[in-house]
Specification:
The chain is mainly α. The chain contains three helices and two strands. It has a two-stranded antiparallel ribbon. The N and C termini lie far apart (118 Å). Residues 36-63 form a coiled coil. Its main location: membrane. Part of a complex composed of FtsB, FtsL and FtsQ. Keywords: Cell cycle, Cell division, Cell inner membrane, Cell membrane, Coiled coil, Membrane, Transmembrane, Transmembrane helix. It comes from Undibacterium danionis.
């Protein structure tokens, strides 16, 4: 009787091994689940970034406001009859963004 109990216990352990530590075991499934969750979070972040880039591309294609803003701040361009004013704080190493002031309309 004792030999049968030991044999059955050994078979039970052998059956449990693939369930816990095998290729499709619970530990491996838990690890893969964590990887899938991390990939989904990363994909959501990338989708948000792509949506922002897509809206920026559409704005650049369809509107002139984005192009004008980039020309002003990145290239330092101004429109005709505008006055360029740049204010720097004394003792400050950081440059402020340029401000463009439109002159008052001329009266006839």
């Amino acid at each position: 009787m004792r030999l049968i109990t030991i044999a059955l216990l050994a078979l039970l352990v052998l059956i449990q091994y693939p369930l816990w530590l095998g290729k499709g075991g619970w530990l491996r499934v838990g690890e893969l689940d964590k990887q899938v969750t991390a990939a989904r979070v990363k994909n959501e972040g990338l989708k948000e970034r792509n949506a922002k880039l897509d809206s920026e591309v559409q704005d650049l294609k369809n509107g002139t406001a984005a192009v004008e803003e980039r020309a002003r701040f990145e290239l330092g361009m101004i429109k005709k009859d505008e006055i360029f004013v740049q204010i720097l704080d004394e003792g400050s190493q950081v440059e402020s963004k340029p401000q463009v002031i439109k002159p008052a309309a001329k009266k006839n």
